[in-house]
Amino acid sequence: MNPVRELIITRHNEMVDPLLNIWGMEIAIYLFLGGMVAGMMIILGYFLFKGRHKELRCSCALLPGLSIILLSIGMLALFLDLEHKWYFWNMYLTFKPASPMSWGAWILLLVYPALLAAAFLRFPEPLRAAFPSINNVVVKFQGKQVFVRFIGILNMVLGAMLGIYTGVLLSSLGARPLWSSSLLGPLFLVSGLSTAAAFVHLIAKDPYERVLLAKADNGFLTVELFFIILFITGLLTSTEVHIESARLLLNGSYAPAFLVFVVCLGIVIPLFIQSLAVSRRIRHTPAAPIMVIAGGFILRLVIVYAGQASHWGRISLLK
Amino acid sequence: MARYGMVIDTKKCVGCMDCVVACKTENQVPEGFARDWIVYDTTGVYPTLTTEIRSERCNHCDNPPCVYCCPCGASHIHERGGVVLVHHEKCVGCKACMAACPYDARFVHPEGYVDKCTLCIHRVEKGMDPACVAVCPTHCMYFGDLEDANSMVRRLLNEQRSHVLLESAGTKPQIWYLY
């Protein structure tokens, strides 16, 4: 005879019962765009550090503006998710070192000036004639490599902080066994880098950059796959609730989305296609970067939803 | 320094839900939501099954993850008795505290802020018991200072077998169940 466990709860709070359902598409969009912008900032920072801002076709002309737009869309999604929206300014009246969300709020505030400083280095050509005094300052700073490098490093550091934060935000919530892994931070960072490399690969005008980013993306995808394996292994070798939460991704209700769309179509197949393109056996195709970007979004979606379905007390009852 | 907590005797609880009704009335909990609830927990191997009936609520943990993760200081530990509370006017409704709570004890109030059991601190400050304790017809619920060696709650915990919920989660709950 198997042991019996039956739990009847006379509670049906909205968004809590029968399964926690507090975060949905908005948070997945925010985590995805936040991660991708983090990756774009690191790539932008690297280009600035290497002095590529002087190149006419360098994507560092487009990246700051695109990053600001994408991050603003992500923050709009985050704002829409808030239940007490018009009190959002309370986040900026205090700093809570133990709260990753507090860290994130302040990091996001620092990201905008860093991106604006990078945009300043590539002041748009049509505006130069209209604002000669600004143009003079831009020209002055463009020539100072120390300043450009500082902006590059600043973007790389803030990008890394933003990318890691999107994962730590979830991993600090130990009540959800699927999220309670320190690997979520690095996993979301490297996933952000891979989606950013794919995105910049799509918009880059310079063939040198396209090849460079395809090669870099292959590296990021390989590391991402490695982190996913470690993440799952870590859960499978932990307590019963962690093993049950890993099963949500391996043979549970989230397994098809995770294994098919994230692992196969989001990582393995584009890695294979881009490896062939980099070794010049096939031409570069936008299919692979698009698959990487879609896979990065579905990764956030699956982790957000599956994490809420994992629970210390009830998961064994939900098999 | 007082440390408020509750002891609930599951051998006396009949699951009448008077505590739930009293809480909803006292705290004007909106329709469709509950700050406390009843759980029927049946375990064992057939035919030797046992059912524990529990009145559950926020556990006012000593190690409260909901307080640590709050980005704006809305979730906090009250200076009196270590009770975990939410400043409604500071809460942005980010719901991180709901994700951090392994007991799912919090909910979003229709007005937007996150709400939960307060151990009826407004009554306790006037020297009264929380509403749920005051109305219990079987007197299975006890409220008091766990730091006071002479309090009823401390004496019960010293004399009888007790457990807390999800001890392995490491939150150090302060609602104890006698069994």
Brief write-up:
The complex is a heterodimer of chains A (319) and B (179). Chain A has eleven helices and one strand, in the order E-H-H-H-H-H-H-H-H-H-H-H. Chain A has 319 residues and is mainly alpha-helical.
Number of domains of chain A: 1
Mean pLDDT of chain A: 92
Distance between the termini of chain B: 28 Å
pLDDT under 50 segments of chain B (min length 5)?
none
Describe the biggest sheet of chain A? Answer: none
Number of helical elements of chain B: 6
What share of residues are in beta strands of chain A?
under 5%
Task: Walk me through the structure.
The complex is a heterodimer of chains A (319) and B (179). Chain A is mainly α and 319 residues long. Chain A has one domain (25-317): Formate dehydrogenase/DMSO reductase domain (Formate dehydrogenase/DMSO reductase fold, Up-down Bundle). Chain A is built from eleven helices and one strand, in the order βααααααααααα. The longest helix of chain A has 30 residues, at 207-236. The two termini of chain A are 19 Å apart. The model of chain A is unreliable at 315-319 (pLDDT under 50). By secondary structure, chain B is an alpha+beta fold. Chain B has a single domain, classed as Alpha-Beta Plaits (2-Layer Sandwich), CATH 3.30.70.20. Chain B has six helices and ten strands; from the N terminus they run βαββαββαββααβαββ. In chain B, a hairpin with a 2-residue loop joins β2 and β3 (48-56). The longest helix of chain B is centred in the N-terminal third of the chain and has 10 residues, at 18-27.
In terms of topology, how is this protein built?
The complex is a heterodimer of chains A (319) and B (179).
Chain A: E1 4-9, H1 25-49, H2 63-81, H3 100-121, H4 125-130, H5 132-142, H6 145-171, H7 184-203, H8 207-236, H9 240-250, H10 255-278, H11 287-309
Helix pairs in contact in A: 1-2, 1-6, 1-7, 1-11, 2-3, 3-6, 6-7, 7-8, 7-11, 8-10, 9-10, 10-11
Chain B: E1 4-9, H1 18-27, E2 37-45, E3 48-56, H2 65-69, E4 75-77, E5 84-86, H3 96-100, E6 107-108, E7 114-115, H4 121-124, H5 131-135, E8 141-145, H6 152-159, E9 162-163, E10 175-178
